Automatic annotation (TrEMBL):
InterPro entries: DUF2637 (IPR021235)
Coiled-coil region(s): none
Protein name: SpdA protein
Spans through the membrane: 12-29, 41-58, 79-95, 101-121
Keyword entries, A-Z: Membrane, Transmembrane, Transmembrane helix
Length: 208
């Protein structure tokens, strides 16, 4: 609940700004479409298409950054689509403005605020997540015991319950982010433990 409240306080103002600014920009685009022959539901469809195109292009740019997809030219296709949406949105807003400097500024404000809010959300979504810090590994050195023939044998200790719980949180976070179970090497790198301890932790997670 505390994490959800922090996210709402952090992203809530930007979402509210995006909704309000998007509604203002939507109204200007719809009125412009109506003036130029797109009456009824078609005027609403034009406004929805332009605003949602900007949102879709911004999300696609963020997805390209995450996946490292190479651009086919100087500018990526989502960037071109986003630029075209911005131009159409601003043109429709300015068309509804009073023919004066302040009229143009006031009419362009909803479109500008909407695009700023979308860019802020894109920037936050593309920020790298901090890697969990390695936790101190409990002493799990093998103990030497003497068997019937007095031959030393190695007995590995069970992983500490605190370390198992932390490994489970790391594995759950990896599964939620990547959509697949965490691998042995990834778990070992995230926790900074040995190969054997990473294997024991995976076995403990599977058993649980």
């Amino acid at each position: 609940m505390r994490r959800l409240a922090c996210r709402l306080l952090d992203s809530g103002p930007i979402l509210i700004l995006a909704v309000i600014a998007g509604a203002g920009s939507f109204t200007h685009i719809r009125d412009t479409a109506t003036e130029y022959g797109q009456s009824g539901w078609m005027a609403w469809a034009v406004a929805v298409c332009i605003d949602l195109t900007c949102v879709m292009a911004a999300r696609e740019r963020q997805r390209d950054k995450k996946t490292g997809r190479a651009r086919s030219g100087p500018v990526s296709w989502p960037t071109l689509v986003l630029t075209a949406g911005i131009v159409l949105s601003l043109a429709a807003n300015l068309n509804q403005a009073d023919p004066s400097a302040w009229g143009w500024i006031c009419a362009a404000t909803p479109a500008g605020a909407f695009l700023i809010a979308v860019s802020m959300l894109e920037r936050r979504a593309s920020a790298p997540r901090p890697e969990p810090a390695p936790v101190p590994v409990p002493n799990s050195a093998p103990e030497i015991v003497t068997g019937p023939a007095e031959v030393p044998a190695l007995v590995s200790a069970e992983p500490a319950s605190e370390l198992v719980d932390y490994a489970r949180r790391v594995a759950d976070d990896y599964h939620a982010t990547h959509g697949q179970p965490i691998t042995h090497d990834t778990l070992r790198a995230r926790l900074g433990v040995s190969h054997q301890l990473a294997t024991d932790l995976l076995n403990a997670l599977h058993t649980a």
